[in-house]
Design a protein that fits this description.
This protein has about 170 residues and is α+β, with helices and mostly antiparallel strands. It is about 35% helix and about 20% strand. It has two domains: about 80 residues; about 60 residues, no CATH class. The chain is elongated, with a radius of gyration of 18 Å.
Length: about 170
Amino acid sequence: MAMPKKGTRLITVDRVRYRWIASGYDRYLGEETDARIQVQSLDPAGAVLSVRAVDWRETVLPSHVAHVIRTAIRKGWKPLEPGPTFVRDVELNPFGGQEFDPKWRTEAVVGLAAKVRDTREYAALPILADALEEAGCQNHELLTFCREPSQPLEARRVIRMIFANL
């Protein structure tokens, strides 16, 4: 299956050229809430990757697409081989594209994140930022986000990122 060319953008990831497009619409809420990203290698045109970026309301950047491509390859997508559409849901990282370092999951970080998750006391996020910083986190976007007032949806992104792959 080939992706249409109209409206797509080009990106090169690990020396492979791809065509990609992003869109999103929640038919129940009548607003954009999830991003749908489709990717296909250019030469040869392999299997299409179709990804739903959960709770994503921001612009999908090329750095996000590169992350999606690398993640899908690790999960078994073979971009240069023909085949059925490879479908996945992913969590895009809004915090500067930097992956969450497992070394930051100290007892204090996990404990505070669990408290925020269980009680929905998002006012504790600045304390969580301090714990992340003490654990060695230098991701300015993530730390700034935790220290500024946030919406529950965005705060849940931080918590999901901390508990991912545990």
